[in-house]
């Protein structure tokens, strides 16, 4: 199946036919770029209710209010030609088409604002290294296996395994219920993964250093345990683990890292899809 393209919004809204919806779901299981586009669309829709209608600039309103009535002047043939209905219609149509494409391109590459997040790294590390480390489910509401499957569908990775042989043993909502905490282990090594909505607050990453893993920039605090954090599409990911470097890199590579960049055509298509969903919601 080809990429979803402009059908991303229709897929998220459940407007595709039954067969097309099933084909799209199957395609998303193996296409990282389309999965990312679907996740972006879902997060965008969840934030649309907070977007206010823009007001016209005050300077524009003032200039319109201050227009003076000029006396009528004799029009030249060029001016009369410009007032020709067919010519004006053609110009308006061409201008509108260019404006729509330009707007779609801008919307397709736009990023919505999100709250800055400063994960409690020290608390995560302290829990990890405690003599009797608590399960991630002991500090919050337990997430069932079926619920984690649903979270996967909505763009929150809750993989059964990470780094090859680390198996998921628990999942919970922690803090104020806005953080997903997952615990993985192979019986010897452990990896705790935390996911929360927002963008990473980089002003307070004391002790962290910037590194490239899986094609993207992440922040790493070496030691035991190692702490790795980054954000992608308004989601902050934090890993706390005692696995070796190769397995850590493998785990990061299995999670969204923002390494994909859409082309012009895909960006315009994504923008048109978003604009269509806005019109449909109006």
TrEMBL record:
Keywords: Transcription, Transcription regulation. The keyword Transcription regulation applies. It comes from the Bacteria. Residues 9-34 form the Putative zinc-finger domain. Pfam families: zf-HC2. This is Putative zinc-finger domain-containing protein. It comes from Aeromicrobium endophyticum.
């Amino acid at each position: 199946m080809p990429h979803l393209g402009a059908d991303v919004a229709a897929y998220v809204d459940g407007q595709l036919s039954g067969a097309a919806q099933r084909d799209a779901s199957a395609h998303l299981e193996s296409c990282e770029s389309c999965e990312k586009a679907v996740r972006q669309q879902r997060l965008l829709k969840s934030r649309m209710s907070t977007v206010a209608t823009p007001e016209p600039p005050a300077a524009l309103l003032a200039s319109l209010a201050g227009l003076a009535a000029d006396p009528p002047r004799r029009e030249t043939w060029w001016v009369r030609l410009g007032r020709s209905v067919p010519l004006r219609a053609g110009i308006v149509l061409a201008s509108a088409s260019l404006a729509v494409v330009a707007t779609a391109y801008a919307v397709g590459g736009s990023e919505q604002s999100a709250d800055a997040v400063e994960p409690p790294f020290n608390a995560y590390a302290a829990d990890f290294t405690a003599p009797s480390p608590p399960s991630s489910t002991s500090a919050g509401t337990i997430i069932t296996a079926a619920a984690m499957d649903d979270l996967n569908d909505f763009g929150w990775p809750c993989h059964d395994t990470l780094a090859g042989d680390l198996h998921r043993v628990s999942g919970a909502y922690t803090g104020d219920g806005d953080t997903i905490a997952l615990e993985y282990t192979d019986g010897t090594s452990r990896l705790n993964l935390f996911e929360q909505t927002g963008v990473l607050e980089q002003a307070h990453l004391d002790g962290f250093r910037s590194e490239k893993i899986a094609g993207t920039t992440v922040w790493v605090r070496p030691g035991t345990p190692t702490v790795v954090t980054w954000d992608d599409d308004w989601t902050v990911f934090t890993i706390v683990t005692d696995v070796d470097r190769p397995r850590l890199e493998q785990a990061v590579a299995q999670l969204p890292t923002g390494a994909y960049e859409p082309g012009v055509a895909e960006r315009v298509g994504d923008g048109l899809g978003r604009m269509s969903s806005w019109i449909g919601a109006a």
